[in-house]
Amino acid sequence: MTTGIKINELLRLLHLASPSLPIGAYTYSQGLETAIEVGNVSNAESACDWISESLSVVADFEAPVFWRLLCAFANNDAADVTHWTELFLAARDTQEFRAETIQMGYSFSKLILDLNIADESLQAILASQAEVPLPTAFACAAVALKISPDAALSGFLFSIVENQVLVCVKSVPLGQVSGQRLLLSLHPAIEAAVNHAQQLEDDELSNWSPGLSILSMMHEVQYSRIYRS
Fold first, then answer.
1. pLDDT in tens, 92-133
2. Rounded CA separation 219/89 (Å)
3. Domain for residue 213, yes or no?
4. Is residue 229 a part of any domain in this protein?
5. For 116, left (φ over 0), alpha (ψ -120 to 50), or beta?
6. What is the number of structural domains in the chain?
7. What is this structure's pTM?
8. Can you give the residue range of the structural domain that contains 151?
9. CA-CA distance, 41 to 171, in Å (whole number)?
């Protein structure tokens, strides 16, 4: 990984990873709401375990797919973008998980166009996709803003973890200080996930997480819900 990052690149990365980005990430819990409902997550320790395990699943599939999408956009390789976009969507194994990534990807794509941050070639690749999940839109924006791939991957994973921590703060509930302590403790896991995702070969990618899939399906019929996944 590159150790240095320019100030302007850092600012662009912080912008992309910000929870204030209007793509609706705060409305999703990625199965965590049901984990809280059934008692799997009930305090800071169990929240840390849950997020760490979830991150390991992301590091085995979503993160390396995102890494490949970054490379594909950087090379203006529309066929490769389509391949990894379709593969990622095919791996969304519940209705809620699929709807979540498509909704946020659509909102992110619209933002890219509204802010006019991508050149015509990147916009054309994005427009050629039948459906745009979040990793595809985020990768397009990162390349358009000339954020280095390793920094973009770090920001992408941090935004996922931060959203999970915010769900725990609001719904376990955890205090704000406990939430920040939890987020800080997960920094090494994020760094490890970044390194791991870059090293996997194509045939090593795996989205195997049956427990998470079951919780997601339970959430679809959960009586009382705040989040959309």
1. 999 999 999 999 999 999 999 999 999 999 999 999 999 999
2. 20
3. yes
4. no
5. left
6. 1
7. 0.95
8. 7-14+29-220
9. 10
